[in-house]
Amino acid sequence: MTTTGTGSSRSNGTAGLVAGLGVFSLALGAAEVASPGVVARLAGVRDPGPTGRATTMLYGVRELVHGAGILGGRRKATWVRTRIAGDVLDIATVVAGAARSGASPTRLGLTLAALAGVTATDVAAARRLSQESDDGECRATAAITVNRSRGEAYRHWRNLEHLPEFMAHLRTVRVDPSGRSHWEASGPAGTTVRWDAEMTTDREDEEISWRSVAGADVENAGTVRFRDAAGGRGTEIVVDLRYRPPGGSTGAAVATLLGEEPNQQLRDDLRRFKQVLEIGEVVRSGGSPSGQSTRQQLAQRPAQPVA
Amino acid sequence: MRANCWTGKRSVEVRDVPDPTILNRRDAIVKITSTAICGSDLHLYNGFIPTMREGDVLGHEFMGEVVETGPGVDDLSVGDRVVVPFPIACGVCGACERGLTALCENSNPNAGIAEKLMGHSPAALFGYSHMLGGYPGGQAEYARVPFADFGALKVESELPDEKVLFLSDIFPTGYMGADMAEVGPGDVVAVWGCGPVGQFAIASCFLRGAERVIAIDRIDYRLRMAAETGAETLDYEQVSVPEALVEMTGGRGPDKCIDAVGMEAHHAHGAVHAYDRTKQALGLETERPHVLREAIASCANGGIVSVIGVYGGVTDKFPMGSFMNRYLTMRAGQCHVHRYMPTLLEHIRNGDIDPSFVITHRLPLGQAPEGYRTFLEKADGCEKVVLTP
Ligand SMILES: NC(=O)c1ccc[n+]([C@@H]2O[C@H](COP(=O)([O-])OP(=O)(O)OC[C@H]3O[C@@H](n4cnc5c(N)ncnc54)[C@H](O)[C@@H]3O)[C@@H](O)[C@H]2O)c1
Ligand SMILES: [Zn+2]
Ligand SMILES: [Zn+2]
Questions:
Q1: Closest chain A CA to residue B54
Q2: What's this model's pTM, rounded to 2 decimal places?
Q3: What confidence score (pLDDT) does residue B277 get?
């Protein structure tokens, strides 16, 4: 089961990753400036000497600047990219320094491995940050495996009026005899968002696609695909949603439809779908009395019985 | 009702909270007759498990009497005496069908949080953080038991609470430690940790026919208890464990190694302990993996390392080279309690084992805070605390 996606949906996870890199920079920088000899030796350089110590200290200053830039700066993507350049410099210096002063091979290996790991993290963060500035179309995707036949899963979804039972943002879906559907979803601050939709694809036990027709508050389209899971493990369900508010920004669209973490919200919706199909209802706990809900996961009540 | 609540690092408090009610069709409400404090609760108590909230009701080892059932429960009646497994499992998802109930795909309403930290979510557990479900625990007068028709094990009234209570967790957990290590006749097994979980791992190795079990700890009364079960013992503050194990096994190392300590291991060498303690405090690693490193390095070529001690996040200096080059296997997990309960109940009925041997302290629920302190400090010969509401 995987959740994949692009666009603004990643912003929270990315923020955490980026903040982590910032803090890491500050901590490492502080250590390098305060005790360059110790850090150099831990990194595998046996006798750092005055040049080695000075280099390490300079690198410490660089880490501090990066850390401050990433945590406080507005152009985070640029700061993360400068970190990548720094990472490459680190690796080159460690190798050169080691060749000069006879480093212990084990420590050198450990250091290089750690640096490679940090570089990979930096590259990932930079790539995510640059994907966030896009053209305003939002996309959410999620997948889940349900221990039921393809036919059963398809039929439950095909009755669109079932969707609000497991899709948290939907209030009602009504299908009229012509096949056109009328959707109502909760918008920000108690508002209601409405649109009409038509089905664009309907292949039994395989795929359902729909899209909003002209006049929608939020232009949107979606596809759900059903396929057999390997080894007789039921049905894999993959959902892909796209939406765009009328002339609005990415942020507004996200807030309007799927909250700030659209991929997670969609994945939580799919988990509810799985629960409904497998056990007949949505599972509740003291901390999450209304079941799977991204918002509730962020604002848990204590794990106590519900009064 | 009264319930023992987590109120912050190193602090629990018995408070008045609402009585539980039926929230799902397959729920039952159980009036608790006995409940225990587990080494896993100490990780919460010490603040090492993320996503706890002030006021969370603790406790995952409990049993009692059914006082109410939801409309979807047909094989339990009011008055039935039941032991409740600590993982919450639906019985119908793919994982449950394969017997992996600690990985139930439906019980965790907060699976999204767990996925962020672990990639995929395991099952929810009673009283064990919000990322693992946010379910109130069983150190209380009553508990709501979801999927009671699948989870709760009925036990006859001839067996006293103290003999069957540990079917909820530590007996199956110790047994799974031996099962994951494929312990059988002729094996030499080393078990790190002689807490209650370690004691049941040792006993289970013998139940499965192990020839020798070597038990490792530093607390003398715990080592004595292990010796009474038939283990040879090592005090890791008196000897170097890897050297002693080499010596005791003719240079081979133990065939199977069981880690029954987990993330809060202690190290006899002050500097090594300080290294991991510091990294843990700074959040650069979440574990103190002394036992894991020692078990891997000590295990015989081609052997199995079985991890039942709980870990929470990421670890540092994992000896991958030793692990890979020597064809070791590692298995780990929260216990699939449901799967082991019936067999182990049979062992208790037959008199093969009386699990009450680990109990040293019996306290009323109101004294839970004192119970936590005594168990944490290993004071007063404390091995296992049972609370009665
Ligand atoms: N996998 C599961 O399903 C499951 C279930 C229950 C408990 N657990 C875990 O099992 C572990 C043990 O639980 P417990 O109730 O026995 O706890 P406990 O705290 O009573 O026992 C831990 C023991 O480990 C010893 N120890 C510490 N450092 C050591 C070292 N370096 N070498 C050898 N021994 C060392 C301690 O002295 C103590 O006696 C905990 O991590 C707990 O969370 C796992
Ligand atoms: Zn436990
Ligand atoms: Zn399940």
A1: A302
A2: 0.82
A3: 83
